[in-house]
Structure formats: structure tokens, C-alpha cells
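Data availability (excerpt). The following record was deposited with the supplementary files.
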Amino acid sequence: MRDTAGARSGVEAERSELASLRRQLEGGLEVLEACSARYRELSEALQARRWKERLRQAPSLLHSALQAESSLPEVLTRLQRRAGQEPEGKGPASRWLREFEEERTELSRRIARRLSLRKDGSLTERLGRLEAVALAPLPLPPSEGETVLLEGNARWPPVWHWMIFLVVWAFVSPLEEPWVVVLVALLFYGWFYVRSGRYWLTSERLLWKPRLGAPVQLQLSSLEEGQVSVGATSIVRVRGRNRMTLRYVPDAWRLAALLCIYRRREFRGAVRRDPRPLIAFVRMYITTPGETPNMDSARSGWGVLRPGFAAFFSGHLYSRIIEAITEPSASSRGPERRSREKVDVSDFLVLEQLQFLPEERIDALLRKALEANPESFLWEPREMTWRFGNSASMEVSRGGTALWVPSLSWTENQHVGRILEHWRPE
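Predicted structure:
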């Protein structure tokens, strides 16, 4: 009975002290209780795998937590003053202050971990950053005014995934339980499906919409050298300040190479125009006039035909032209300008992208590329003669050297015909 009476009196004393604390803080304790409840809810949301979606579903939670920060200093000052009057820090004010600071510290730590922030920084700053990231408007698919360079939708697993599946299938198919076979097939497809998605690459941004989760995007101007890589399983990875992983995407190499091209300022502002600029890209072989070369042994390269000239770029080189026509970033400046990209960017792909640039920039970049490649050359229309042969072949010659095109497709023939109208008549 004495123990029960003592416990009851202890509880009543604690309630009395807490009531006294409420009166002294004049509503301040209620403010702290509301903040404490928000901190616990935010900490729980940040622990979830899809934490952004949790926060988007309750945007008022972050808004209220951030707005309450302005009133906390005054309340905490009064609470600290009251805690200082308690012997040995064992009163209700000391306990409230200690628990409240622990909740703030824990929430601040979880925000920093989720957003990869530095250790220094106040909770108010981190709440503001969390609000900007979690409640930012979701990116939308490209509009009609944007130039879409490439898009793709992952539909089937890569080849090596199928090989693994077939090996597992060979082991489980003899089993009498059909549900095991069905389960393996569903697990295989489900694992691939939830990790895949759809992407759009425009001249300004990359947008990735995974099967599960919200879409994400990054501005190409934010990329730096060496931040794009492509894996053997059609996975494109972007590292740096904004990270992104695109799994099992079609045209993975082309996507990665285009990212390396359009991150450079010389290719910004690219637009798809109709009609397209007067430019044609054709495969050419060096020979003598009137002679059909042996395509297996003859020197070959890419020809670029423009109203004012014909340019020939020799060889199957990678990353030479892109480094020649663009300025290096600060990290790659030096006597030796070597590409630090982790993706091989073919010269033809670079040349092909010139058609989306303004006319004057096309010619300027082509001439700049020619200067950097001693095996390439440029002919002007007044120096050349040209003729069409059998099977839609074409020969362009100057003096004792000729450039031979084995066969022009219907589309190439249309582009070349428009350009020849600007050249000197044969």
C-alpha cells in the first residue's frame, strides 16, 4: 500500500510540475509538442525507401516544420532558463529540453544522409533544402517545343539475363511442381520490370521515368567530363552532383555518347528544323577518277557535303573530332588535350549532330575539325567535278584524286541533290 501510495504521489507531483511548466511557458510547451510530433513523422518518412513520395503526399508537414523554426528560439530560451533552475537537471524542463534536442539532432542527421549534405549546417537550413528537393515539381515529358534527340523504352532484358534465366529454367523445369516454374518466370520478369523504365533525351535535359517511382531529370549543362559511363548490360550511369542510373535501355551506347556531346556548350541550343539544313553525310572511298576502288583495302572515311564545300574525314576515329571542335573544361586544360570521357564518341555521331546547329556554326565547327585532322581535307565546288554512276553510286574528283560513294540511299540522294544545286554545274 505504501509503495502504491508513493508511486501515486510521485505521478501527481510530476503532473503538477508539468502543469506549472505549461503555465510558465505560456503556450510554448504546446509549440514544442507540435514540433516534436512533426520531427518524429519526418524521421519516419525519411527512413522509407520511397521517402520523396511520402513527403509529397503530406506537403503541409514540411511547410509547418519549416515555419515553426522562426518561433523556436524564443520558446527554447524560456525552457533553458527554467531548466537552469532545476537541481541536477532532473526536472521536467531539463527532460523536455534534452529529448527535444535529441529529436532535432536525429532529424538533422537523417536529412543530411538522404541529401548527401555536409556535416555542418543547421536544421533550419536542412529543412529548407529538403523542402526544395522533395517538393520540387515533377518533370514532365518533352513538350512540342523541345528537340528530342533520342528516346527509348526498356522492354526486354539483356542477352546475358536471358542466359542466366535459361540455366535456372533448365534446373527447375524437370520438377513436378508447375508452380515453381511459374514462380521463377514471374520473379525473373518482375526483377527486370521494376528496374527498367523510359527515357527522353533532348538538347537540354535527360528525363528518366522508372517503372516504379517518380520521374527524375538532369540538365545537360550540369555534366562534366568523365561523369557518364555505359555498362555491358545496357546500363547508363551518370555521376557527379546529380546521379542517375538508367537500366536496360535500348541504344545505351548512343545515349551515353550523345550525353557527352550535348553537355558541351558548343552544342547547346540545338533544334530540329524543317526543312533540315543543306548538309549530307555519306560514306566515301579514296580512289582515282573513273576507277572503282576495292572497298576492303581502299582508304575510307566520312564525307560531309555542304553548299560551299565538300569535306572528307578519314578513318574510324573515336573522340578526335569532339575534342577538336569543343573547348576543354577546366579539369582537362593543358599541353595535351586528351579525352577524359569514359564513353567512346564516334566521329560520325559528332558530325551527324551538326545538322541541329545554326548554319554559321555548322561551317565553323567543320573547318575547325578539319584543321585538327591532317588526313582530312576540304574541296570547294569550283575545284571539283562530279558524276553519278550505276547503282546510285557517285564520284567527286579534284585533279588526280576522287571520292567514291558506292550507293546513295533514297534519302541521301534527296539531300545530295539539293546541295548540288548550289555547286557549279558539271
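Summary of structural features: The first strand starts at residue 148 and ends at 153.
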